[in-house]
Amino acid sequence: MNSEHRRRIDLYCDIIVPKLNIMKLWPKLLENGIFNIDDINISTWKRNFDKEETVKSIWLTIKTRGPFAFQNLLLSLQQSDHEELAEMLDKRTDENTEINDNYFSRIKDTAEPLQIKVRKAKEFSSGPINSIIKTYRMRSNPRGLVLIITNIDYNPNIQKPRKSAIHDEINLQKLFEEMGFSVETYSNLTGQQIMDRVKTFSQRKDLQNVDSCFVIISSHGKKGEENYTEIEGVDHYYERKYTKVFCSDIIDCFTSEACPYLAEKPKVFIFQLCRGDKRQTITHIPEQVTDSSDNHTVMNNPRYILREKPTRNYSDFLIAYATLPGYVAFRNNITGSWFIQIFCEVFMNYAHDHHLCDLLKLVDSRLKNVTHSGGCQTVVVETKGFHKYCFLNPGFFGNEKKQ
């Protein structure tokens, strides 16, 4: 199998594997010669077909099954009612996607910032057919409100400025505006100013007219008290009366009680910052290779949300951190942070037909392949009552009037 086909199998692993019906696909993998009935792993796999780890192992092993395995995989997918997944893996339907979808592979070395160009949705997505999981309403115009805070200019005698973070801010703003969100941005805020801006944003009355909100903070950070992640304002080390700000403080501004306009709507928090001083390092593991060759009505009365029905105070939250607790987050000194740039690339190319959780899985899948001097990082995604599919439907509004 050639390197490009192996790359595609790796690239789409975290998106495709959860969607596979292995009981339908498996007979076709045998029929089309990808696996033989007496292969060494088959007895173990068949005992554990109900486990996603097994399906993932089967999927990744296909890379080792010879020069025709990729085409036979596409055929097997098509023959087992996985046509959409075959089309995604093949990607011949949109040549531009391939051209604009490899920035992540050179992110640590390039001096050229990512260029944002969002693929627009052609219809409102509602999730898989017959799924027992519901879908958040994401149809408002604008789709949601976005708050972006980027801290760049720290005192160089105390803390290193984050000059390249300007590209994070620019690309995030362009990404969300092209997707149909209303964006407000701030930079170089003190700890107190961060909290003031977040609280003001959470009380905007027009939140009642939109279906979602994103809060994105790119800043220096550290491991704070009781292992909470602290966001460092630009006055962090030299202001005696410095106001400490924790990620949890930001989230608390958007509970159903604190922000009733967003009750039961998706609230997404993205934190690009270090969470400690430890460096995560790559680990080498052995790999077995057997390849023989190469509906909601907008209510203008804010009391409606509170009176409609009881709801949980902490619900519909999704929080994504650029790195593990206690660890650093890496940044290209010219083009911006690894996490944010990969986030932008994935969302601009795939938000049109993939839901939010799958998009973040793909971000992490790509981030795992980026290393520098032995360093790497892992995205952490936490949810609090985030129990529905969330399709952003970028740039598509149907008959929705702008609010």
UniProtKB/TrEMBL annotation:
Active site: H220, C274
Transmembrane segments: none
Any single GO BP term: apoptotic process
Domain Caspase family p10: from-to ranges: 315-394
GO molecular function terms listed in the Swiss-Prot or TrEMBL record: cysteine-type peptidase activity
Domain Caspase family p20: 142-278
Keywords: Apoptosis, Hydrolase, Protease, Thiol protease, Zymogen
Keyword Hydrolase: yes
Domain of life: Eukaryota
Keyword Transmembrane helix: no
Gene3D superfamilies: 3.40.50.1460, Death Domain, Fas
Similarity section: Belongs to the peptidase C14A family.
Protein name from the UniProt record: Caspase-3-like
Organism for this UniProt entry: Vespula maculifrons (Eastern yellow jacket)
Organismal lineage: Eukaryota, Metazoa, Ecdysozoa, Arthropoda, Hexapoda
